Amino acid sequence: MPSLFPETGEMTWTDVTETELLEGVTPVFGRSWRFDFDAGEFITTPTRKIAVADEKEAWVQWCEKAIRTPRYRHVIYSRDYGSELEELIGSSFGHAVQESEIQRIVTETLLADARTEAVDQFTFSWEGEACTFTCRIRNVRDETEIIESVVI
């Protein structure tokens, strides 16, 4: 009986890793709508249309939203999306430990996106139990931006 899966000279099977498949593939930067995180609403133009964010601004907004969204809470998001910063609220850890955890969590959250190349230059300021931090993000196009004052 002939095989259902014949092998010919044209078909050669090799073990290719995922990183080898992704080499040379440029992440897609798309556009989005501009969002005001302080007001909690989309930004509109004078003609009452929702303002469009360019590719870099859309990526920066993605980063800010990913940090602000609790991981595992919303079924619509993948398990890789969001941060676990809420777990630090009310913790009894010292400031140094909390700063280290914030840095780790934010870095892991943002590097989940293929567009993000690096997260660094964290600065922290404490007012009582509230911590405000800023960090620099860099994408694969070598564009940088500072994410400011994300409060936990």
Automatic annotation (TrEMBL):
Highest taxon, organism lineage: Bacteria
InterPro entries cross-referenced by the UniProt entry: Sheath_initiator
Pfam families named in the record: Sheath_initiator
Record's protein name: DUF2634 domain-containing protein
Organism expressing this protein natively: Paenibacillus zeirhizosphaerae
